[in-house]
Each structure stands twice: as C-alpha cells, then as structure tokens.
C-alpha cells in the first residue's frame, strides 16, 4: 500500500480560488519568472533537478510573492526523493483531467475543436520565429512560458496573448493543484501573479470549468497542423 501513497485522495474536489493580485514586474523580471516556472513544471528528472539549482539563484531578485513560490518549489524538488517526485508528477499531470498542462484542453477538451485551437498555437510560434520540439503539443504551458522568456519582444507579446486567452484554464489548473496540495501549485501561482487581473467574464468561465471540467468527445488530434491558416498574430 505504501507505494500508492502518492495517488490523489479520493473525493478531493477543486474549488474556485480567489484571484491573486498581480505583482508588478519589468520585462526582464517577467522573463526570469516565466523561464523559471517553465523549468520547474517539467518532469522532475535529473536535468530538471540540476536546473532547479540555477532557478533558485536566478529568482533571488524577483518580488517576494513570485520569488518565494519559485524558490520554494525549487527547494522542494531538490530536497525530495526523486522517485517519489516522479511518481507524484505522473499521478498529478498525466492522470487528472483538471491538472492538464495543455492550455486549449480546458476550453476544447477532447473534441474536434481542439485541432483548430492547437493550430493557433502553431501559428503563434511561427509568428514569433520560435522553434518548438515535437515532444509536446504546442499548447503545453511550459512551452508557452519559454516562448515568453526567450522569444524576445515579439515572443513575449505573443505568449502574453496566449496566456491571457487561456487564463481560465490556468486558473482551473491552479485550483486543481491546490486541492491536491501539490507542490507544483507554487509554480502556477507564480505565473498567475505575473498576469493581468481576472475580469468578470473570465471569472465566470473559471467557475463553470471548475464545476464541470473540460468538455469531452474523444477524437484524434492528427492533422491539426493543416487547419486554421492566416491567423492574425502580426
């Protein structure tokens, strides 16, 4: 039984959390915060744990609410048992629908609309001149955060638009992680602190998603790269 201790407790349900007040950051500070969150949200293998040491030093100059969350998570990863962390990561992000780190999933779920949503991310990266790998779908939150941090002014602007457009999904992810008392809640909170305030319409969508979860209609996602041309990213 002990090896199953990392699994989420049955019956734990997410609840909508109060929005976090944004923390003022300059462009460099936002880039450091987003790159750090991107690193810490990756699977906790040896490369991530090595990078966590650099993150802990890099965030030292950020405002306390952002710094403390990112540095705290880095310390948690560095001090934890790697095997237990890896098992908890899989149980959290791979096995729970409300903890998906794929931003378009919250609005489109496993439906036919997902393909068109993914195309928007592909076109966004192209507009920023940003190369992505094929290891993850283009709406993967750590990849969007990396675009924000490393894509220059255009990349930061485009990534900011993507994060704002999918703020409801990010907030649902935050709520779900908090309900599970996940250590990775800290990284998502740090990201939310760098984003504009949540408006009333977004708050309403968040409430609906927290209650119902992403839509479901199991379909394949092949061919998404051929849809939705001429999207207005310029």
TrEMBL record:
Gene3D superfamilies: TorD-like
Top-level taxonomic group: Bacteria
Any one Pfam family match given in the protein's UniProt record, by short name: Nitrate_red_del
Matching InterPro entries: DMSO/NO3_reduct_chaperone (IPR020945), NO3_reductase_chaperone_NarJ (IPR003765), TorD-like_sf (IPR036411)
Keywords of this entry: Nitrate assimilation
Record-given protein name: Nitrate reductase molybdenum cofactor assembly chaperone
Organismal lineage: Bacteria, Bacillati, Actinomycetota, Actinomycetes, Micrococcales
